[in-house]
Design brief:
533 residues, Rossmann fold
């Protein structure tokens, strides 16, 4: 465990100091509160003290520490009124400060380890306008008065590393994007180097439908992971994989052979739903991490077995809920998180229409797919559970089979979820709905959200009484970012950063699907989830 000496401003608010310290400790660093003269034994110093508060002896101690191989992460205030030696050590002096404002943080250099897989993000904070001193490498920038200003840079000093972040870390530390940059900067300054780390990936199932095998593999590549193997029962599909992904790809028709004969570290299971659990467990038992296409499994018991296996063998098991990165969903979540509609207490969502179900499609057969609700219903359940992140008290449902008897999945499914605090949600999916409904209708104590259809170009309607006056308008949708899923997986496996889609959250999706059907069979009686939440 790398050790960090945190040199902070005695005048800083205790909450700010604790927030920074907590972020460093969550990133796996051992943190001690120190002064500039008391940094022996540390791998890096995080300097949050204004430069004018550090005397000549303190600057000399810091300089000697860095030149001998230690690291320095200097935060905005550290360059304020800094002496000439300290300014040279940091690599800049402050020319001016912007007021607190909302701005876009641009990744200027995505090839440096600190910025691997980091995307542009917004930040509300001050911006320190710098006068650079000496050579440095700008990683992040932001515009101020018509010019891009360096917001994060790195430089070498002797045998050591210096990173400077030109803003107020105490204000920004609660923002996910900035916290990630900050903790990585501290780890890099302390000597970590993950520049060449990757994850070797094997794809199980390269079927032609939706070209999902190619989609997964290429998204992994963009996240700096390395597809090395493909397994499919059809040799024609493995040949296609070599054509699409490269001749270096090893191909197999048996999963056991791929596990035995390759050094694959993570397996992606893209197969019919009834195979998800056994294949995931097989890969986990072989010491591999696993990503499973949605839905996680067919039953809650299967999901629990996968989770328990992953815990026992200490490997990752997650689910490709990539549509958490759909632009319209992210827009809805951002609106809710802003407080514009107050506390959400009811969600309705609908998908479907009227049309005969295909007979030549494995998803049409319940014994393979699990049922109609296991398809798009899994996405909607996941969305609802993330928009309503509360304990589920009960689930009830109404499943129908009225028209399309040539297949075995349902025609119409309806789930009703009751959360703690009297909050509710309904999720409806149908192939016999001649008249549809809004895709989303969300009610909050200060307003509501409506998404009428599937075209993100139409935007999201928001009605808000947040400020005592009515607002009724359309909010444009953000862009889709499906690569966000695998960027997170890579960050988790390579850097130990938190996993976005936990297996437990994916199991709750299966619980909604399973228990709503079970409730329907019992006449709609509410059922409680069979596991701790």
């Amino acid at each position: 465990m790398n050790r960090v000496a945190f040199v902070s401003d005695p005048a800083a608010a205790k909450e700010s100091t604790e927030a920074i310290r907590s972020a460093l400790e969550k990133a796996g660093l051992s943190v001690s509160i120190a002064g500039p003269m008391n940094i022996d034994g540390a791998d890096a110093v995080v300097l949050a003290m204004p430069g004018k508060s550090i005397d000549a002896a303190g600057v000399e101690a810091l300089s000697r520490f860095v030149k001998n191989g230690g690291g320095l992460l200097a935060l905005g205030s550290a360059a304020r009124d800094a002496s000439e030696p300290l300014a040279k050590l940091i690599g800049a002096r402050i020319k001016s400060h912007s007021p607190n404002f909302d701005y876009n943080v641009v990744v200027s250099d995505g090839e440096h380890p600190i910025t691997h897989r980091i995307q542009d993000f917004r930040l509300e904070d001050e911006l320190v306008v710098l006068e650079p001193m000496g050579e440095s490498r700008t990683l992040l920038s932001a515009w101020w008065e018509g010019k891009p200003q360096p917001l994060a840079f790195v430089r070498n000093e002797g045998k050591g590393r210096v990173v400077y972040l030109a803003n107020s870390a105490s204000r920004a530390i609660g923002r996910t994007g900035w916290q990630k940059v900050f903790t990585r900067a501290a780890r890099f300054a302390a000597g970590e180097d993950w520049a060449n780390k990757t994850v070797k990936v094997g794809v199980i199932g390269y079927g032609g439908a939706f070209n999902m095998g190619k989609l997964h593999a290429q998204s992994c590549e963009r996240a700096r992971m390395k597809p090395v193997a493909v397994c499919d029962v059809d040799p024609k599909r493995t040949a296609t994989a070599k054509t699409e992904l490269g001749e270096h790809i090893q191909t197999f028709t048996e999963v056991k052979d791929m596990l035995d004969k390759t050094d694959v570290e993570m397996c992606i299971v893209i197969t019919p739903h009834n195979t998800h659990a056994p294949l995931s467990i097989q890969c986990l038992e072989a010491g591999r991490h696993v990503v499973t296409e949605k839905p996680y499994t067919i039953t809650v018991d299967e999901a629990t077995r996968v989770i328990e296996t992953a815990r026992r063998v200490k490997k990752m098991a997650t689910v490709f809920h990539n549509r958490r990165w759909d632009g319209d969903y992210m827009t809805i979540k951002r609106i809710i998180d802003s407080g514009a509609i107050g506390e959400v207490f009811h969600i309705e969502c609908f998908m479907g229409g009227y049309g005969e179900i295909k007979t030549d499609w494995w998803r049409s057969y319940k014994e393979i797919s699990g049922g109609a609700f296991h398809d798009w219903g899994a996405h909607f359940c996941d969305w609802v559970l993330n928009l309503m992140p509360y304990k589920i008290e009960s689930i009830s449902g109404d499943f129908s089979k009225r028209m399309w008897h040539q297949v075995s999945i349902e025609d119409h499914t309806l789930a009703h979820v009751r959360f703690e605090g009297g909050r509710t949600a309904t999720i409806e999916q149908s192939s016999i709905a001649a008249i549809g409904k809004q895709r989303f209708r969300i009610l909050g104590t200060l307003g509501g959200i409506e998404q009428k259809g599937w075209d993100a170009k139409d935007g999201i309607r928001v009605v808000s009484y947040q400020n005592g006056q009515k607002f009724d308008g359309i909010v444009p949708c953000m862009k889709d970012d499906w690569d966000g899923f695998y960027r997170n997986v890579a960050d988790h496996l390579i850097l130990g950063e938190p996993l976005a889609v936990t297996p437990e959250s994916a199991r709750k999706v299966i619980a909604v699907i399973n228990l709503s059907e079970e409730s329907s069979k019992k006449g709609g009686v509410p059922i409680k989830p069979p596991f701790e939440q």
